[in-house]
Specification:
heterodimer, A: 200 residues, Rna Polymerase Sigma Factor, Chain: A, Arc Repressor Mutant, subunit A, B: mainly alpha, 2 strands
Chain lengths: 200, 201
Amino acid sequence: MDSLSNEHEEDFRLVALAQKGDMRAYDGLVIRHRGKIFAMIRNMIKNDADAWDLSQDVFIKAWQALPRFEARARFSTWLFRIAHNVVYDWVRKRKIESAGELNDEIFDRDRIDASARTAPAIIDSPDDALSHTELRIKIETALAKLSPEHREAVILKDVQGLSYKEIAEVMDSTLGTVMSRLFYARQKLQTLLKDEYDSR
Amino acid sequence: MNTIPDDTRLALWLDDELTGSELAEMDAWAATQPGQLQAREEFRSYRRMMAENIPASEEPPYPDFFLSRVNQGIRDLDSSARELAATAPVRKSAFFWKSWFIPTAACAGMIFAFEIGRQSRPANQPLTVVPPLTPVVYTPEEGVDAKWFASKQADATVIVLKGVAAIPDSTDFFETVYVPTSSEADRTATHEKTKINATKQ
């Protein structure tokens, strides 16, 4: 808990410096949070190259909005809110460009490359690594089958560890809506990952 | 706590979001609810499975380049903001002399700059406009140092890389190099021969 609050204090210190125009401090914030933002967007859109570009947009937009940031929320929650808007704007734009041909396919592409360079550097035994990779692909495939809102709720709650209240802030919705989305999303995930659940 | 909790509180308890007295109350209620205790364990197991398999943080590929792209984006934003500020309408000043002094000074400045430019540019040399570039040279390989040079006179840009591993002799560049066909080579030779003969005559 202490390390967590230390992290937040460090964030606020860097934010205060960056708000005065200190670019080095802002670089520090980017370095601290780019991994989370990239992972969140990548899990949302399932495309490494677009996630890479969109994550940069998040930090550029965050710089623009930084003077308005107040230390009421965690800096990471605030970034997730910007990431949410960036992803939804991008999806909306893609839908317009494709003249309605695509619906949720943008989110639903399950092109998951298990050997991608961005794979986490967790050192497992070969057997563990294989089963982890297999399970990860199964979970990612199941996540891709959820609606964008349900997927985002699951990612923010069960992957990023945000509270219900923080998710409501990020997704600009009520606590009740978040709870309902999570309930249905988890139910569907449970059905899709039935074998995994049963083996545990 | 004897009464059944509302859905919100139950959901928060199942997700381990309650603290303090609220948690104590719910724990006391759940002690007689084996079904709810089991449900909370299943939630915990599910969250553990997700956390173990889907990383919350993944360093983006080429993190240094990522950072330099963010910095470049911010610089672009700042410069466009400055341009906007420069083109924004200027508020009328209360000083009456500004109404004639500023246009006169601007005209004088323009004439002066034009004269300087006219005298400094040698005749017959085309005017070249070099955009103010501040390139970001990124080298993905560690230990490679890249330096960027631009020459207006030579109209050339050179990137010097230090620390790049030597290209082995076995590398075949045949397919990347233009090799004239035999007929093209012959035609050139004939053309050169004709030119030589014409010179001799």
